[in-house]
Amino acid sequence: MNNIIVTGGLGILGREVVNQLLKNKNNFVIIVDKDKSKKKIQTFKQHLKKVKFLKIDFTNKKKIFSILKKYKISTVFHLGAVTQVLEAYNNPYKTFNSNIMGTINILEAIKDLNKSINFIYSSSDKAYGELKKKEYYENFPLEGDFPYDVSKSSSDLIVQTYSKTYQLNIGIVRSGNIYGPGDFNTDRLIPHVITSYLRNKKPILRSNGKLIRDYLYVGDVARAYITLMNHMKKRKQKLYIYNVGSKENFKVINLVNNIKKILNKSHLKPIILNNSKIEIKRQKLNYNKIKRELKWYPKVNITQGLKKTILWYRNNLSLF
Ligand SMILES: NC(=O)c1ccc[n+]([C@@H]2O[C@H](COP(=O)([O-])OP(=O)(O)OC[C@H]3O[C@@H](n4cnc5c(N)ncnc54)[C@H](O)[C@@H]3O)[C@@H](O)[C@H]2O)c1
Asked: H or E stretch including 16?
């Protein structure tokens, strides 16, 4: 059996990474998440023999060491984090503790207990900070300004130093905005807009609608992580860093209008608050490197992705 840890395995990305890992019958997945809500765990019900849930906060260093001592692990996908820009703004200490110290705890455990473990980290396009050129490339400096962004710039650099200094096997993924089925967080734009429209309500936008982002379907992003894991097993390098971007790069308002059109809600115009001062204005990732080296590219376009996502929210609306 190939034992794999997925932290944040109950989040939108973690859930999909776990599902894709479970397609290989040799994988046994240990989910480390401080959440243990039944509605999220139910999604793995059919695989219970191949999944173990550990309700653990990874800021607890002792517990992290004990899991790594107990199980012979081949790969850790470290996907758990405080992920909301607004939550990070309101709780900087918690954010830095989770996203930076929590990450260090896992790296320390790998360094001290078993350096052969592959560690794959979910960084973000936000680690780069404000975009000063046409697109972000992997060799650009990491210079976030706001708490969430800084938590990703710093943890990304810290993860790199454990590879460069202590020879850990590290993969880093810097992806754009992820959407898809299974996102229970209606503070996020796409879940909020879809559930509002499904209930015949006007969605509320915190921004002015003009922020520009890359949008990626969760299945495509999870496939990038698994492809990287398989590539790392060949052990040619110690450190791999990839942007995971998309051709779907547009303004928030265009995305909202797209959802409105699919759901035939043209009479429900979004309410634009324009009170978000802590967001990068424009983001776009160049993802030629992962295309060239790992043959990964996004397969699901925005209309297909939104339709699949809407269908999931329609079928699960009672959970929200
Ligand atoms: N969603 C996006 O658009 C996006 C884009 C780029 C990068 N990322 C990164 O990808 C990763 C996964 O994102 P997501 O959208 O799936 O997040 P999510 O918010 O949906 O899920 C995160 C999970 O981490 C868990 N968690 C948080 N702090 C924890 C702690 N201290 N101990 C244990 N569990 C903890 C939460 O309970 C939650 O289940 C994150 O690192 C995020 O920063 C996300």
From this structure: helix 12-21
pLDDT tens-digit readout, 241-280: 999 999 999 999 999 999 999 999 999 999 999 887 888 9
Domain boundaries, the chain: 2-178+216-244, 180-212+247-282+299-319
Nearest residue (by CA) to ligand 1, atom 10, is 122
The region, left, alpha or beta by phi > 0 then psi within -120 to 50, assigned to residue 68 is alpha
Residue 44 has pLDDT above 80, yes or no: no
CATH class of 180-212+247-282+299-319: alpha beta
Q: Which protein residues are within 6 Å of ligand 1, measured from CB?
A: 7-8, 10-14, 33-35, 57-59, 79-83, 98, 102, 122, 124, 175, 177-178, 185
Least confident of 34-48, 84-98, 290-304: 34-48
How many other CB atoms sit within 10 Å of the CB of residue 67?
A: 19
Q: Give CATH for domain 2-178+216-244.
A: 3.40.50.720
Ligand 1 geometric centre to CA of 22 (Å): 20
pTM: 0.97
Active site residues: 148
Residue 161 sits at the vertex; the CA angle it makes with 239 and 80, to the nearest 5 degrees, is 80
